[in-house]
Design goal:
This protein has 10 helices and 42 strands. The two termini are 41 Å apart.
Length: 798
Amino acid sequence: MLANQTARRLARLSATTALAALLAAPVLAQTTDQGLAAAEDSDTIVVTATKRASDLQDVPFSINAQTQADIQRSGATTIEDLSRNVAGLTIQNLGPGQSQVSIRGVSAGQIVRDQPGVKEQVGFYLDESVISLSLFTPDIDLFDLNRVETLRGPQGTLFGSGSVGGTIRYITNKPTTASVEGQVEADINVIDKGGVGGSLKGAVNLPLGDKAAVRAVGYYTRYGGFIDAIGPAGKDDVNSGERYGGRIALLLQPSENVKITPRVLYQEVHTDGFNRQEIYNIFANPFTTTRPAVTFKERQQYLLLNEQFRDKTLIVDGTIEVDLDGVNVTSVSSYTDRDILVSRDASSLTGSVSLDLGFPAAAVTLPSNLRDTTKVKSFTQELRLGSTGNGNFQWVVGAFYANTDRDYDQRLPTPGYDAFTDATLGAGTSAAVSNGFEVDSPFNSVLPYTLEQISGFGEASYRFFDKLTITAGLRYYAYQEQRTITSGGLFANGDSGTRNKTTSTGINPRFLASYALNDDVNVNVQAAKGFRLGGVNDPLNANLCQGSDRETFGSFQSFGDETLWNYEAGIKAKSGGITFNTAVFYTDIKNLQTTLDAGSCSSRIVFNVPKAHTVGVEFELTARPVEGLQLGVSGSVLDAKFDSTVTAGNGSVIGGIRDGNRLPTVPKFQISANANYSFPIGETAKIVLNASVQHIGDRFTQPSDQEPPASFFQSGLPFGGATGSEVRNITLKLPSYQLVNISAAVDFGQGLSLTAYINNLLDENALLSLDRERGGRARIGYATNQPRTFGLTARKAF
């Protein structure tokens, strides 16, 4: 069966490859690869992090830019792959399209799928369009990107809320009237002890005369699975999936000083499961005697039901640029429509509650499917004016408006559950608590959110004596969010249209100074404020809580705005083929929004921690010591801790929020190094060898993981012959890990290359985050990475 599935996948991929090659052939025959080669050979990287084009080395704050050539050399296919080569950038992997991002250690802990009211800490942009969504970091394909910019530190002046820790910008290649150009890429890969994957991608730019052009991109990726499941829904490679989509952009240039660029992007991501490696499940563990005892192997989980993740994304945007005499006017309009489904096997969760309620064993083992659906529609409009030219005085002013509707629903279909409910708790109980929701679903909720914001911003700089540049900026913001909650079922609280409103206004300032010591060395300092909107916690699932957890967590219903001040000083130097950038920083955080599991309640609560800080140093070095050899090293050393303690009414510390404890999800130390060596083997061909190693230090998923004796778990749930009093010692400090990637390529010239690679050469099984159901009483597992993978990639640029 597995062989047949693999054959079908390969056939589908081969057919798609052949079709794309046929479509691209007429274009390939009449074009060259001069544009791409020039980009790869250039030492100058142009970025737009200050809303105007400038050399990366001239930007007066800490920024990284991974170019198209960098992305291809590293073999990165996701933002998580890229993060390991960017100092200070941390990705917590919770599955495809569900990663959490932090920069410089500004982290809230593990935000999970049922916390729609929590705002992001890092803003994401596709060119000029906002695409951020808390938890569901958009899994944009990296093909045909010009670069990915990582702006470290709060970017609230020019990029607004959601950028309290920093901003990441996907910058695409734009349509151009200069020439026909593009590229085709095909890949096939095999995961060690896993499935087969691959991809086919293509891009083409077509001038439509001298006043218009179109650029089209299409891609298909098949993800090979590597997690095996046991149990009634067991099968190999349960986390396989696919991503496909494309974008098309049109350039209209009716005159020399007017550019109009409408664009449409559509993408779908589907996976058949999650990269969860379990170590305990109430249905499968070493302690059962009346059912088979199970000790999980690496990359294994237990399933009663199949799981699924689906993300459909539509982005329609348009940019209008008008170059007046000395002033550039830019309008950016954007509409985003996302439809996300997270379908999980919640049988262990529901079964654990059934045990607490005294249900019979037949009810405990009922298959139960938790379905989280998120539908988001967002419109944004930005209008700004900026100076042009190279004068000493530069400025930008603008206004921004956003309106977002986010509908979040949960259902827990568990066929047969109502009959057991009525038999155990009394006839008519299930109907009495349903609150109008469907039968045999012990938990249901409907949470529509509306968020409206308006802001005005401005930033100005002046260059003195051709050496010193002073910059000051600020942003005024006004937010209003409204949430309504309706819930029903045995596990719910029976909320009926309860409304909550959150409003906030304020100012985010920023001050920068940059001084050119000489033509090769700049020093800069910055002080900037960041902001993240507060909100309202969902009501505690009180019926699922033990008494102590109801007492501890029941009173935290709202959380306030998070603010911070970031102070940094940096040096940027470039000379003789060597580039060295470094920065030291200190971040003073007020009312940090920290997320915790509410113990046994199957709820998550956000707390405000009055004081916290991060302090550290980051560096990036690239060098070309000899012809054909390029070396790179980047890393960060970070101290991120709470400076306050949050306690319950009885004086006990809540969830590890203790003065001196580390902030969650971020390592103290991470470093990456890479080497790229090329040498000719003929008049046009050359060999290109590449190797990279990344070290990611130890981390904690949640603050409570560092509180003794947190690592000792007892379920308290007698089932299958297990008493529930058995002690399990769990690894809560996620160990450091190292990833080694190598590749060898033949570049035949004329844009044609063939690359063989091995990713995760040492087959590291990295523990990326800890996943717990009901505080570990129902299930415990880890998100883990892809095993050793062998692959072959062919590219043709033209």
